[in-house]
TrEMBL record:
GO terms for biological process: carbohydrate metabolic process. Keywords: ATP-binding, Carbohydrate metabolism, Kinase, Nucleotide-binding, Transferase. It comes from Morus notabilis. The keyword ATP-binding applies. Belongs to the four-carbon acid sugar kinase family. This is Fructose-bisphosphate aldolase. It comes from the Eukaryota. The keyword Metal-binding does not apply.
Length: 280
């Protein structure tokens, strides 16, 4: 059933687990998330990146909403990484319940005013607002942020950011990256996450971690223990889709079904790791 992001995140907060937010691009992706959620009896977030919206348009949004409405478990639809006012103005009109304002490419001052501007408009529509402070490195939908540009979230700035913008969820940078982690593995600053959690808990703000593809079971557990309530997952699901195309298929329907199954397996595994399985 179509549910609110707030309901899902509050339940996760009370239950001490996290919700998986999976980027979707087409019907197979949407079906994979919903099928995994139903199989695992898990709540889930379908999220649409501006790059996906550019390809799929309103039909993609309608597909997500219809799939959520028909699901037997709680599903919400979220707009991911709006980096410009144009993106956000479009996102505000999609009929969704939550969105992410991404001003992480801006200076702190400009990020505050951009996020605050959108936050006021989104709250007027009753939407839940996520924003990012610090900056993730890595590649997402052809947009690459070099390592040297990556900045960790500063706790004092985070406090000012939350108080000035009135956001509901904070996406933090603690060494998490979009896409692949270096061969040496992820280097997450769990000490910093603990401090950010203390701040967010105090302010009633949900902690969000992007770049969850590539994080091992143990790290995910450590992050949940330090208050992360939403993990964004994209790369591993896309890879499962692409890899499934490698084996010979008889026809289009077979291609679609095997892509869906491949994505579903990755998504279901994440739901178990995030602790949302069995929580629907
Ligand atoms: O109501 C929201 C919670 O206090 C969020 O805290 O950072 O531990 O998820 P959290
Ligand atoms: P990954 O591609 O590393 O899973 O990151 C996903 C993400 O943060 C989407 O916003
Ligand atoms: Zn992200
Ligand atoms: Na990642």
């Amino acid at each position: 059933r179509l549910s609110s992001a707030k309901e899902l995140l509050l339940n996760a907060e009370q239950g001490g687990y996290a919700i998986g937010a999976f980027n979707v691009y087409n019907l197979e992706g949407v079906e994979a998330v919903v099928a995994a959620a139903e199989e695992e009896q898990s709540p889930a977030i379908l999220q649409i990146h501006p790059g996906a919206l550019k390809q799929g348009g309103i039909p993609l949004v309608s597909c997500c909403i219809a799939a959520a409405e028909q699901a037997s478990v709680p599903i919400t639809v979220h707009f991911d990484h709006g980096t410009s006012k144009e993106d956000m103005v479009e996102a505000l009109e999609l009929g969704l319940d939550s969105l992410m304002v991404d001003g992480s490419h801006l200076s702190f001052k400009d990020n505050v005013s951009y996020t605050k501007f959108i936050s006021v408009l989104a709250h007027a529509k009753g939407m839940l607002v996520e924003a990012e402070l610090g900056r993730l490195s890595g590649t997402e939908d052809d947009l690459t942020v070099e390592d040297y540009e990556a900045r960790l979230t500063d706790v004092n700035q985070a406090q000012e950011f939350i108080d000035e913008t009135g956001i509901d969820s904070l996406a933090v940078c603690i060494g998490n990256v979009h896409g692949k982690y270096p061969a040496s593995g992820p280097n997450l600053r769990l000490d910093l996450l603990k401090d950010l959690d203390a701040l967010c808990s105090n302010r009633g703000v949900f902690l969000v971690l992007h770049g969850a593809s590539g994080l091992c079971k143990e790290l995910i557990k450590e992050c949940i223990e330090r208050g992360v309530r939403k993990f964004n997952v994209n790369t591993e699901v896309r890879k499962a889709y692409m890899d499934s195309l490698g084996s010979p298929k008889k026809d289009l329907v077979h291609v679609m079904a095997s892509a869906k199954e491949a994505m579903k397996a990755v998504i279901a595994e994440k739901m178990r790791l995030f602790g949302s399985a069995g929580k629907a």
